[in-house]
């Protein structure tokens, strides 16, 4: 299934690449933990970067050759990294790779960019995770977002409906992809706000109206968190339609994320 984040696990130490948790500090390796979003990464094809799922920052090699996290920038050479076979290499120079500094096997070891020599301290495994599915439940009426009629075709409307369990719930289950964008279990499609009523369409990284994320107790547009999903006219009945609207804090814009 598309859209899986991954761990970057050192074959030298078995530890995973991690956000250090302190602003401006070098990236480190830490004890592998698939439930720690600071250790989850994704490749952003639009910027050519590897980004952290917890904070959306990009891996960036500083002037000291040490790895840091900074906001993603188009065309920033220090951020142009790609996961290859057993290595993480620069997109424009495959001889420049991620390297556990001084071959350390310690938790907290820093990572640098270095000329490729094939040592185990330069070898990494991208361990992709299975998506975790969830319901998006309205605080207004306790109903969940549902792809109408279980229709997998592009353009199918998203409505609210009574929550289901088991195999028939596939059109009510969602997951977040490597960019944190919400996608449907039914067909991997994204939420689309190109029309008055919200529908599903294939994900398009160049269309901001097809990129929606969990933002507190709202479902917000990735590019503008003030635009959120809204149950039209605060309709509490099953089959209510959804639109995109400026955030006002009403219960028809608030949702609970509930695990499958």
From TrEMBL:
Q: PROSITE patterns recorded for this chain?
A: RICIN_B_LECTIN
Q: Which residues form the Ricin B lectin domain?
A: 3-127, 131-258
The protein's matches in SUPFAM superfamilies, at most eight in alphabetical order, are given as:
Ricin B-like lectins
Query: Which InterPro entries does the UniProt record give?
Result: Ricin_B-like_lectins, Ricin_B_lectin
Is Signal set as a keyword in this record? Answer: no
Query: What keywords would UniProt list here?
Result: Lectin
Q: What is this protein called?
A: 29-kDa galactose-binding lectin
The answer on whether this UniProt entry bears the keyword Flavoprotein reads: no
State the Gene Ontology terms under molecular function.
carbohydrate binding
């Amino acid at each position: 299934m598309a859209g899986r984040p991954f761990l970057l696990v050192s074959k030298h130490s078995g530890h995973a690449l991690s956000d250090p948790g302190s602003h401006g500090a070098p990236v480190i390796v830490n004890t592998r933990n698939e439930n720690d979003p600071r250790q989850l990464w994704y490749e952003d094809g639009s910027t050519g970067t590897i980004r952290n799922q917890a904070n959306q920052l990009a891996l960036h090699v500083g002037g000291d050759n040490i790895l840091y996290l900074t906001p993603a920038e188009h065309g920033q050479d220090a951020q142009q990294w790609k996961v290859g076979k057993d290595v993480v290499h620069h997109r424009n120079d495959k001889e420049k790779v991620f390297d556990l500094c001084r071959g350390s096997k310690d938790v907290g070891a820093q990572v640098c960019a270095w000329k490729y020599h094939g040592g185990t301290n330069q070898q990494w495994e991208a361990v992709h995770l299975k998506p975790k599915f969830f319901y998006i439940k309205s605080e207004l009426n306790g109903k969940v977002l549902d792809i109408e009629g279980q229709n997998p075709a592009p353009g199918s409307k998203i409505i609210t409906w009574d929550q289901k369990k088991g195999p028939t719930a596939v059109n009510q289950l969602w997951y977040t992809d490597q960019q944190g964008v919400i996608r449907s279990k039914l067909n991997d499609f994204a939420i689309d706000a190109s029309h008055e009523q919200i529908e599903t369409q294939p994900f398009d990284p160049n269309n901001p109206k097809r990129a929606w994320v969990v933002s507190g107790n709202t479902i917000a547009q990735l590019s503008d968190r003030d635009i959120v999903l809204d149950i039209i006219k605060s309709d509490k009945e099953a089959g209510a339609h959804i639109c995109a609207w400026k955030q006002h804090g009403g219960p028809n814009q608030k949702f609970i994320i509930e695990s499958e």
